[in-house]
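Lab meeting, item 3. Inverse folding demo.
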């Protein structure tokens, strides 16, 4: 597991295990841009059948083309205002429902082993019940490269 996403819905805290992470500072036309992609696991083994989460087994969260000063991410924090949200961040529920992220703050640091970690907090529209109130979320993940194990027969 690469990390966890918690959505603090008033009825229950929804937990998603993160399966895939991607982060890169891209240099294009004399400017650096941040790209992040977080995809949750689609397993529901840890979810009760009557959970709100049961209807949404997988979520993808993205940051794209967000201008940054340089390629160094460790120790940096980035805040994305609501006016920026439509331009730089997105969320995909892998179904017909729409959701939007607002007031996002991303913080990067190295963990004890030197791997890059992301702490992302903000609000997400309540796609569970359709309420007009956005609900808070927190995400913590790492970008440790997966080890590919090849069995030799």
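The presenter then showed the designed sequence:
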């Amino acid at each position: 597991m690469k990390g966890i996403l918690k959505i603090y819905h008033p009825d229950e805290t929804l937990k998603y295990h993160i399966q895939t992470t991607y982060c890169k500072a891209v240099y294009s036309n004399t400017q650096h841009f941040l790209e992040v992609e977080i995809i949750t696991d689609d397993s529901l083994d840890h979810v009760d059948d009557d959970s709100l989460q049961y209807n949404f087994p997988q979520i993808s969260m993205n940051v794209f083309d967000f201008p940054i000063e340089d390629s160094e991410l460790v120790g940096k924090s980035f805040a994305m205002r609501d006016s920026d949200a439509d331009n730089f961040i997105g969320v995909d529920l892998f179904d017909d429902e729409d959701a939007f992220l607002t007031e996002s703050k991303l913080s990067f640091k190295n963990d004890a082993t030197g791997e890059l970690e992301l702490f992302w907090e903000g609000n997400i529209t309540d796609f569970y019940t359709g309420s007009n109130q956005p609900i808070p979320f927190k995400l913590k993940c790492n970008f440790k490269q997966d080890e590919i194990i090849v069995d030799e027969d």
